[in-house]
Each structure stands twice: as C-alpha cells, then as structure tokens.
Specification:
Helices cover 41% and strands 21% of the residues. It is of the alpha+beta class and 236 residues long. The chain has two domains: 79 residues, Arc Repressor Mutant, subunit A (Orthogonal Bundle); 147 residues, Trna Endonuclease, Chain: A, domain 1. Strands 3, 4, 5, 6, 7, 8 and 9 form a seven-stranded mixed sheet that branches.
C-alpha cells in the first residue's frame, strides 16, 4: 500500500486541477501561491505525482485530469476533486468510480422508446444489478424541486433501456434490476425524487459498495416490470 499523501501535497494537486480547468497551461508559481506552499515544494509534489512540468509551467490532458481527480479522491478529498473538473470530465470521473466499484460500464448510452430518443450518461452493471446514472455537475443547494424534471427523465430512460436487450453488457436471459441515479456535487435535501436515487459525489463510493439487487430500501426496477410499465418501449 502506498504511503498516505501529505496535506500540503494534496493542496498542490487540488490547486493544479482547479487552476488548469479552463486553461491549457498553468504556472507553478500560481499553483504554489493558491496551495500556500513554496514553489520548490510544489515542484517536488508535482514530480512525485508524475505530473510533467518544465519547472515553470504545467499542462494536463483531459484524461490525466480525470486520473488526477481519482487520486485526490482516494486521499479523502472526493468532492474537491470533482468540483475542479468540467462537466464532461465529471461524467468520465463517475464512470471510473463505477469501474473501481466492480461495475462494467458504458458511457453515453442511447435508446429509442416511446417515439423519442433517450440518453443516459453512464450505465454500470455488476452481477444482476444495473445502475443508470445522470451526472449533474451542480454546485448549488440540492432542493428537491431542482431534481424533479431530471429524475422523471432518468426513470423513463431507464425503463426504456430495461425493456430492450443489452447484449454488449449482459449475457443470458436472467432478470435485471436497474437503479436510476442522479449524481451531483452538492448534498441533496432528500435521497429520492420520482423513484430516482439522489447521491452526492462524496457518498458515491459507500453507496456503490452497498448496492445489491435485493435491497428493499432502493427503488429498483425489474426488467419484467419495465416492459409492463412501458408498452411503447418496444418501439424503435
């Protein structure tokens, strides 16, 4: 097991991620100032984290930014790492979290049903349970009314997806249990909206570790129920 990352190093990594969010390059001097460390300490922290720099400038690719966010999250600063990402990177970050929890994932899943197209940001399958996730990079109070429309969309999209075969992700004819989820930065005021689970990014790892297809406290939807509830979902 690698040694724990020190607080100063974590601050340097967070500020590197934050400052490079909308820039191609960021100065080490600015990183050190924001992290309240010396420039020499910041350079050492960047080098130890295998972040390339020429001594004065740092440049991060989108893929590396997501990996860096995951590293910061493992150091216990999950929300701060997610906050420093763009909304596109946040979706990739959510997919990586699902994979670390043992889910097989597919991103930007599209399905036809009810005379229209539906899109789900990330679908994850582990055993007999499927999680359909809508990633909302929202950093505002999680009032329940804010989630209502998105929750209705997520449940309907999940029902249409369940009513169709998912050959790429699941083999066999066993019944699937799906759980529609909205992931957000801020802590929601409630845990459910329109039959959809609301989860803050800080609670995502513990939430994923506890999901089973037999949990009566979760609004799981069975594949057989999806067909009954959405007869139009068989249409193309």
């Amino acid at each position: 097991m690698p040694p724990p990352i020190g607080e100063g190093t974590v601050r340097v990594l967070i500020e590197t991620l934050r400052l490079s969010k909308d820039k191609k390059r960021v100065q080490v001097e600015d990183i050190a100032s924001s992290a309240k460390t010396s420039e020499s300490f910041a350079r050492k922290a960047l080098t130890n984290a295998r972040i390339e720099h020429d001594g004065n400038w740092v440049s991060l690719s989108p893929g590396f930014r997501v990996k860096l966010a995951l590293g910061i999250a493992r150091a216990g600063r999950l929300r701060e790492s997610a906050l420093a990402l763009t909304w596109q990177e946040f979706e990739r970050f959510a997919g990586e979290c699902l994979e670390e929890a043992g889910f097989q994932t597919e991103k930007n899943v599209r399905v036809q049903g009810g005379g229209r197209a539906w899109q789900i940001d990330v679908v994850g399958i582990r055993g007999d349970v499927m999680i359909t996730m809508d990633c909302k990079h929202w950093n505002t109070p999680g009032y329940l009314s804010k989630f209502r429309l998105a929750a209705k969309h997520q449940r309907n999209a999940t029902l249409h997806l369940l009513a169709k075969p998912v050959e790429k992700m699941l083999q066999g004819d066993r019944e699937r249990q799906a759980l529609p989820v909205i992931l957000t930065l801020s802590e929601p005021r409630d845990q459910l909206s329109e039959g959809v689970v609301l989860v803050s990014v800080e609670k995502l790892p513990s939430f994923l570790s506890g999901v089973t297809p037999y949990d009566e406290n979760l609004p799981l939807i069975s594949s057989s129920l999806a067909v009954v509830e959405n007869p139009m979902s068989q249409s193309n």
